[in-house]
Amino acid sequence: MTPRRKRMLAVAAIVIGVGAATAVALQAMNENIMYFYSPSQISAGEAPAGRAFRLGGLVSAGSVERTPGSIEVRFTVTDNARSIPVSYSGLLPDLFREGQGVIAHGRLDDAGVFKADEVLAKHDENYMPPEVAESLHTPTAAGGAS
Question: In this structure, is residue 142 part of a structural domain?
């Protein structure tokens, strides 16, 4: 085998190795990325079926229902245009309450109920997650996922 052929094989092996590493990294990132959707976007069918995503908005007044003797809670998240029911089993943040901004991580089930794995509440009276603030200021929240 000539030296030129050896160099060409080495370059080809390096290119294939870098390509494979890039493909693996992109696949891992794609599986772990989580998009944000408002209740209006979910109602319009923009949310992915069978994939985890973030739901954000305000907890509707009078919507929090706790199951006595358990950590099950149901509430509704709204963007003042549409509402999505949320079911969560776990401890809620101390700042969770009606009328406050929340972001929930989870999946939408076949019945249209968002099954949350985690619920995050705003951390003080002046803060609201940028995605939630943006979706509440648009009348129809017709923007795309970010």
Answer: no
Residues 145, 117: contact at Cβ < 8 Å?
A: no
The three-class DSSP label of residue 134 is: helix
Instruction: Report DSSP state, residue 91.
Output: P
Amino acid, res. 96: F
Domain check: are 28 and 57 in the same one? no
Q: How many CB atoms lie within 10 A of CB 35?
A: 16
Residue 41 near residue 145, CB atoms below 8 Å: yes
Question: Would you call 107 helix, strand, or coil by DSSP?
Answer: strand
Domain range spanning residue 12? 1-33
Torsion of CA 93, 99, 102, 104, to 10 degrees: 90
Indicate the pLDDT class of residue 138, thresholds 50, 70 and 90: low
If asked whether residues 49 and 113 sit together in one domain, one would say: yes
H or E element, residue 54:
strand 53-59
What is the rounded distance in angstroms from the CA atom of residue 110 to the CA atom of residue 108? Answer: 7
Reported as a single tens digit per residue, the pLDDT across 66-80 is 989 899 999 999 988
